């Protein structure tokens, strides 16, 4: 089984899901639904105070805080979404800006992350930092075998 296949197999994942607390759930649903569609990620579960996205499994949740308090942004944290191509990263970035997200790093390579990396960084409407990235497995293998 290739590294790419292993990375995509759900039973191989280390994290079950991630949840973001929201102060305006409807606004965040309106932002993330079309944005995540650029990565072929769709709504997988809906509840009164929460919604989940994923590729057949709910891995990313938006929800009102369980304790009824104000949702806050985690300083020093971000969420990285997996793209399957550079064009998906570019589309994610353009869609995020069109939906009211703020640029936190235009699409492109990042030398510090390795030559096979291509990604972008966005700040969502509530201040959460998100990323879409593509890892070029073929390039990584070619570089490894040089």
Helix content: 25-40%
Beta-strand segment tally: 8
Give the terminus-to-terminus CA distance: 22 Å
Strand percentage lies at 25-35%
The geometry reads as globular
The biggest sheet amounts to:
4 strands, mixed
How many separate helices?
4
Rg measurement, Å: 16 Å
> What are the segments in which pLDDT stays under 50 over at least 5 consecutive residues?
none
Secondary structure class reads: alpha/beta
Series of secondary-structure elements, N-terminal to C-terminal: HEHEEEEHEEEH
Major β-sheet strand ordering:
1-4-3-2
Mean pLDDT: 91
What does this structure look like?
The protein is an alpha/beta fold. The protein contains 4 helices and 8 strands; from the N terminus they run αβαββββαβββα. Helix content is 27%, strand content 32%. It has a 4-stranded mixed β-sheet with strand order 1-4-3-2, covered by helices on one side. It is globular and about 55 Å long.
